Amino acid sequence: MIEPSVIAAAGVVAGSIVAVGTRDGRAVALGLLVAMVAAPLVASPLPDSLAAAAGILGAVLAAYLLWASARVNRSSGAGSGIGWVAETAAAAAAFAIGLNVSLVTPLPGPIVAQAAGMALIVLAVVPIMGRDVMRLGAGVILLVLGVSLLTAAWLGPMAPLTRLAIAALLVGVAGAASVAIAVQPTVLPAEATPPTDIPSSPAPEPSTELPAPATGSSRLPGFSRRVRP
Fold first, then answer.
1. Which of 128, 141, 133 is nearest to 179 (CA)?
2. pTM for the model
3. How does DSSP classify residue 24?
4. CA angle, corner 110, sides to 118 and 46, nearest 5?
5. What's the burial of 229, exposed, middle or buried (CB within 10 Å: 0-12/13-18/19+)?
6. CB 26 within 8 A of CB 75
């Protein structure tokens, strides 16, 4: 039977891959929501009800801040910098290394927490090195989650106050990212940019020729020409 911590670890990694690989800002928020909600469930033993409720509330609030900023500003991330296949392969390799190599002996926490933490840190490297605000915020959130999972694996179960501090940190990072998204300059799409390669017609040159004298029987109205016999 598969343990719940293994399923939670798989959900954390899957949500993180979606968060760093998609271009839609709302999909980034949903992927981070899955990762943040599932991350506390990787620990063994499971956190108490108060700490779990605080973690879920912080995850929902952090994801909502990113969702709202992406919806209002219609922002989208730059997508994966190395591609979906490369992101998945890197996360799978880091997860496998975390399952087979133990840096702390004996390991106080679950081995899947170490594996998931390594996978999240690997996924956070490329977004943090970029310039896109949405991807940068997602990378910092994944880095915080990865470090918290490694801490749970290497140091054992976390205290409720520590979980509250991590939830507050995630909300702060998401809030800072949403503010940065709101104040960043809006880039017009390509079809809305006026073309610059259309040659303009030259202005007509002023004419220097004098008007030709009038010919024919042009008379002022009200005057008639008298013909002498």
1. 133
2. 0.75
3. B
4. 115
5. exposed
6. no
Q: Which pLDDT score is estimated for 140? A: 94
pLDDT at 25 (0 to 100): 84
Strand, helix or coil at 76?
Answer: strand
Alpha helices in the chain (DSSP H): 4-21, 25-38, 49-73, 84-100, 111-129, 133-155, 160-183
Helix orientation angle between 111-129 and 4-21, rounded to the nearest 10 degrees: 10
Two tokens, residue 187: 């880039």
Where are the domains positioned within the chain? 4-188
Question: How far apart are the C-alpha atoms of 192 and 187, rounded to whole Å?
Answer: 10
pLDDT number for residue 212: 56
Beta bridge partners of 199: none
Contact 123, 20 (CB under 8 A): yes
